[in-house]
Amino acid sequence: MSSLILRRGEDREFLRFSFDGWPCGAYATECLVGTRPARAAAAAWATMRRLGYGGYVELARRTLATTEKLVEGLAAIGDLQPLAPPEAGILLVTSRSLDIFAVSEGLKKRGFPHGRVLEPEGLHFVMNPVEDHAPVEALLAAFAASVAEVRKGSLTRQSSQASYV
Predict the structure, then answer these.
(1) Could you give the CA distance from residue 86 to residue 81 in angstroms, rounded to a whole number?
(2) Does the chain have fewer CB atoms within 10 Å around its N or its C terminus?
């Protein structure tokens, strides 16, 4: 089934799923299958068949190497740290001493999209394997410039809302 036609428009409310009990803020959908339709599952299956075990392990290794490079660079900037030691392809960057949502504003104005998490306040990144570390270096440069602006007081938060990118 690719569509559902309702006789009464007011019945649409029964399709709506809304949830705000997670750190990324409110999530709502009117899709019967949420955010994972069957075509995504089929694509994942086909990808795994193509990669095989060895290919998957290599991509996982490269993803962790990319993540480690980013974490090391954040430590060198100072005042930024991962919420927990990253073990997968997700990195949540927090700060005990800086307004992390102000840093977020600097990253956004420099063209680096990311998610924002509320508890604890942090910046959410989905990590990918890269051959060339230039994108990681560019992100670290944007982090360094944003942190410098926050430290000077010339960059402040514009919103306290979470975002899911």
Answers:
(1) 11
(2) N
Q: How many domains does the chain have?
A: 1
Q: How large a percentage of the chain has pLDDT more than 90? A: 55
What backbone phi and psi angles, to 5 degrees, belong to 156?
-130, 165
Consecutive H or E run containing 71: helix 38-77
d(CA 36, CA 56): 21
User: Are the C-beta atoms of 84 and 117 separated by less than 8 Å?
Assistant: no
Cα–Cα dist 100/123, whole Å:
7
Where residue 84 falls among pLDDT bands split at 50, 70, 90?
confident
Can you give the residue range of the structural domain that contains 39?
11-152
In a domain, 158, yes or no: no
